[in-house]
Structure formats: C-alpha cells, structure tokens
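Hi again,

Forgot to attach this to my earlier email, sorry! This is the prediction with 2-deoxy-2-fluoro-alpha-D-galactopyranose bound. I've pasted everything inline since the attachment limit keeps bouncing my files.
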Amino acid sequence: MQVRDEVERLELVLQRDPLLERPEVVAQVVRVGRGLGPGEDAWTANGRHGGILPVARSPAFAGCAYARRVTDVRRWDVPGRVNLIGEHLDYNGGPVLPLAIDRSVTVKARLRDDGVVNVWSDLPGAAKVTFTTSVQPGEVDGWASYAAGTIWSLVDAGHALTGVDLVIESRLPSGAGLSSSAATTCGIAAALDEAHGLGLDRTQIALVAQRAESGFVGAPVGLMDQLAVLYGAAGHAVQIDTSVSPHTTRLVPLGWEEDGLTLVVIATGVHHALADGEYAARREECERAAAELGIEWLAQATLDATVQLTDETLKARTRHVLTETARVRGAVTAVSRRAWAQLGTILTASHASLRDDFEVSCPELDVAVEAALEAGALGARMTGGGFGGSAIALVAPEKVQALRDRVEARYDARQWKRPEVFAVRAADGAHPVPDASAKLGQ
Ligand code: GAF
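Structure tokens for the complex follow:
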C-alpha cells in the first residue's frame, strides 16, 4: 500500500483479552483504492477514522473495577532455546550447552480466590480450559496439561495456591522442538512465585517446571531446557553441568556474530507421534547401560565401556554419550578461541552421532542438515530431543537465503511441507514484563 493510497474499506475486529478484560481493536485493510489527491484524507464513508479506537481509554472505564484488575496482572516473558551441543546428555550426567533465543512465550497471570484455574492460549483452535488447584495427573491433557502440571507440581511441593487466570501467548513455532513447553511451565511457575511471594530461586522454578512435565504430562525430560530458558543471557550460551545436584550453570560468551556468522534454525514442522515413547526408551537404555557398567551416570563411562557391553544397541547409545561429552568440551574450547570452522565440524559430527548411534534423527532433519552444509554452513545438526523438531546451522548471513533455497528445493523434491528457516540470537532468560496497559484508568 502506498502512503498516498486511499483505504476504501476497513474491517474493525474487537478482540477481548480474557485476562486484561479490555477490548482490543484490530484494523484490517480490505481494499485500497486510488492515491489521494492534495488535501484529501482517508476517512471512511461513515466518517469514523480507521485507526485504533481509543476504547480502553474511554472515560467510561475510569475508576472501574477493570482498572484495578489490570494492575494485578503478572506478566512474564520466557524465551525458547536451541541446544548448541550436548544432546541427550542432561539425564546422563553430562555437560550441555544450550542458549535462550529471541523468540518467546508470554504468560499473564492474575490470582483468583476461589481455587479455580482458567487457562487461555493463542494456539489455533484452543478453547479456554478450566480446572482447580487440586488437579491431578490424568485429569487434563493436550496443550493445557502443561499449565495444569505446573499448578499440580507447585501444590505437590507444598505451596498453597488460591486459583489463577492464565493467558499463554507464544511467538515460538509450535512443535518446533524449541522448548515452548519449558517456556510455558517456567513462565507460569515464575508468575505464581511472584504473585504469591513464594521465594523460589530460578533453579527451584526449573525443578517445579521439570516435575510438571515428568509427573503430569508424562515426558521424563532432563533439566536442560528449563535451566536454559531461565538462566540464558543475551550473547551467551549456558553451560550446564548435570553431573552435580543441583546442576551448575555458567555463561559462555558467544562471539560468532562479531565474526560475521549467524545461527539459523530450520524448523521442519515434523512431530512424530512416537516421540515421547522413544525419548523415554532412550533414557531407559542409557540407565540400563550405566547399571551394567556399574556407574551412576552413563557420561562417567570410560572408552572401554563399549567393549564391556555386549548388547549392540546399548553400545551405540553409550558411544554417543561418550563422544558427545567430548564434543561439548571441544565446542566450549572452539567457542572460547573463536575457532568457528572447528565448531562447525564438531556440530556436524554431533548430528552424525545422533543419527547413527543414538537414532533420534529423522529424514527431514537429515536432509535439512545436508542441505545447510551444501549451502555453505560451517556446521549443522539437529537440536533438542529429535524425531522431528528443528536443526541448527552456523552460517554467514549472506548465505542464509541460499541455505533457505537449498533446503526448500530438497524438501520440494520429496513433496514435504516447506520448513521455516530463520536466524536466532542468544537472548536473555525469563523476565517479568511491566504491563504498559496497567497505567490505564489509574
Ligand atoms: C528434550 C528434553 F526436554 C531435554 O531435557 C533434553 O534431554 C533434550 O530433549 C535432549 O538433549 O528437549
């Protein structure tokens, strides 16, 4: 649309934010006509301007209960994460190196006093879900189980909750393996910690969120994603040592952007139905291998472990855990020396190990990695749990379009749905957001 074009029709849509209880006006341009002449403006036929109507600022709202309620809303912004390297090590006592990214989930929470929990989500087709603070595993499923699980986990840990209205808004592609679930559970736990004054530190919030997933949703995840989205910092990865309890975190400065490189996510859009069961199966295999070797964590195994084990599957799983542990150490050194080509080689080797020894990749991830390398990426690998989700690639910004074209061409040839390709930056971890609309009516 040109600046001087005349807007011939606008559709105004009133959207009601369930929590802030204020209507928002969304204006959608339906038709654009000729350019405007000197002195003309774009008022519509009935004389009302097509911009944002000042509904929420109307004098009719001043001093009403609505104004008080808005100020009671806690809002937390929680990023997603990519794991740079150290895959399937967080439940094996190994080191991992994730980073929080500049795409996030926002959780808005306002306490209630009747024990009721209402949850809204902006996921397509998601209707409001209602339960109580006594909710138990099995009583809520689907997207709302992450909210219900967090409530259950907090209550189970001995915290008295009074009920809450929750709104979850996500700017992370859904099912992309970028930890929207950890962002949601950590955001809800952080908002309730703040609203009730529970006094939890970030590691305790991470543990509450992890238990929501393992004890309620039924995914026996490690603690990497929660710690990454809580402890992340702009320009840094979070090195996590999962061999100690509580796990320790250390920020690692990332300098690839200053050296003309960028990290790209290729979100395949694939989510295999078997994923959760396969994740649990890998975890169980690792525990079995550690037990056979007489060690607590598989990452403690020495190189001769693969000779001691007889089962070929357990050998392969152990080989991945051992080599991946070494790769994380190599990656940390490469990052500190700004040895980006070396880092790229290590990332690509990690993918091969996840594909061949740990068997958690899938054709869509393998093709994404191959295409990224063909387009000139220094390195590429699947990231996260696998069986779908996303791959990452370290590449020069001027090659990102070629990478996108290459991946799309390879996907088109197989008649797969095109993946989403976008650059990410290392971002700050979870933080409260002052609500600008809280000033309204004050
Ligand atoms: C998923 C899990 F949630 C993490 O805990 C981690 O195990 C990861 O898969 C694999 O590294 O994201």
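Residues 83, 87-88, 90-91, 221-222, 224-225, 384-385 surround 2-deoxy-2-fluoro-alpha-D-galactopyranose (CB under 6 Å). Residues 6 and 33 are 5 Å apart (CA to CA).

That should be everything now.

G.
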